[in-house]
Protein 1
Amino acid sequence: MALEDAWGKGGGSRPLTELSLRTIMAAIQDLNGSLDPKLDAVIVDATLLHAGLKKVAEEVTTAEIDITHLQSTSKRLEDQAARSRGDLQYEKTIIRFFLDFTLKVQR
């Protein structure tokens, strides 16, 4: 699955749904190996995550989430990744951030 498939085709905005969140997770899983049920061993590339979150932020309204905060947080995680490649604890932090974001959007 190409990463672009996670965002769907066509122009215009569409509301973020649980289905699109599952598609985003599937795209990340496809590009980063199999998804551990406990999320303990998943390696998520921070650059991919930053791009994905930025795209998701474009699809949700500012009433649902502070997009500026999201972008600065994901950029900070991306910068941290450049300094700490291979650190499993860091990778778990990215997963937790993504899951927290997912829950926040679904509210």
Protein 2
Amino acid sequence: MKTFLLPLLCLPFITISSCANAQQNTSQQNNHAKDLAVGMAVDQQLSVVVELDSQYRFILGNQGAAFDYIFKRGDFNGEVPLNWYVGLGGWAEWDDDFGVRLPLGVDFQLSQGWQLYGQVHPQLNLYKGPELEVGGALGIKYQF
């Protein structure tokens, strides 16, 4: 039954993001980063990361799976290749726990196509009643 919970948690975020994307004009969409990024992270223990349109991040790891919708990005300083982001997501462990999370992170452009990212995500564990927790992730991605 738990395998159905992660898609159900992700469905509202995908719907909201589809509506938000429909309102953006084409010039904003052309300024987005490349469409696909793939990498590795320590998130749900050792994990594979797939990111689409610099907004939809899918994580599949040894401990479980997660999905993050990155809804806001910005940069600290135009001269430094360091950007920040805020998102909303859901997660589920293979054994029992599941919940929602709020990723707060930074991206660092290492070289052409390569990005290093780190995030802290306050998360609400909903398995045996609401319990507030703090998680984190560190990963590297290559953008195609």
